[in-house]
Amino acid sequence: MVDEDESLEISRDDSAESEIVFEQGIEISVSLPHKKVKELHALSGGERSLTSIALLFAMSQVNPPPFLVLDETDAALDEANSRKYGDMLEKLSKHSQLIVVTHNRETMSRAGVLYGVTIGSNGASKLLSVKFDEATQIAK
Questions:
Q1: Under a CB-based contact definition with an 8 Å cutoff, are residues 69 and 92 in contact?
Q2: Could you say which residues form the signal peptide (predicted)?
Q3: Is it the case that residue 25 has pLDDT exceeding 80?
Q4: Which of 29, 62, 64, 68 is the most exposed place for a label (fewest CB within 10 A)?
Q5: Mean pLDDT in residue range 4-26
Q6: Three-state DSSP class for 101?
Q7: What confidence tier does 45 reach under pLDDT thresholds 50, 70, 90?
Q8: What is the pLDDT of residue 43?
Q9: Contact present, 88 and 3 (Cβ < 8 Å)
Q10: How many CB atoms are located within 10 Å of the residue 77 CB?
């Protein structure tokens, strides 16, 4: 998700006068292509999402967790970044089990199994599951 001309810098915020390290914040400065370096709070929603996702994915590559739960982390992404996000999900899924909540079709197309919740005729919630490969073959 981070190309050659992008960078992410994380530094400790020493402006807090607390002796406890965990009470001090961190500053995240981001350099996106063709843009000036900005702090996280100055980025757009999509840029903040990309930065947060890049940090999470980088940590997961260093020390892969057994599973990751991602709840609509792709909601603010455009189509091109959704494809990059999907590529990263595929790489992560080789080392960790992923549970992804999404409404993004591009992200759904990368899933092995899709689960959906709908309202039945009696008004009760109903759970549906479809293996993506099977659904694709049925649709053809």
A1: no
A2: none
A3: no
A4: 62
A5: 61
A6: strand
A7: confident
A8: 86
A9: no
A10: 21
CATH topology of domain 7-109: Rossmann fold (3.40.50)
Q: Which residues pair with 127 in a beta bridge?
A: 117
At position 74, the amino acid (one-letter code) is D
Nearest 10 degrees: CA dihedral of 121, 130, 87, 83?
-40
Residues in the chain, how many? 140
With CA atoms as reference, report the closest residue to 8 among 46, 64, 60, 47.
47
Nearest to 104 by CA among 131, 130, 81: 81
- Asked whether 13 and 26 are in contact (CB, 8 A), the reply is yes
Query: Which residues is 64 bridged to in the sheet?
Result: none
b/e map of 26-57 (b: 16 or more CB within 10 Å)?
Answer: eebebebeeeeebebeebeeebbbbbebbbbb
Task: Identify the band that residue 96 occupies on the pLDDT scale cut at 50, 70 and 90.
Answer: very high
pTM: 0.69
Contacts for 39 with CB less than 8 Å, ≥ 6 apart: 27, 28, 29, 30
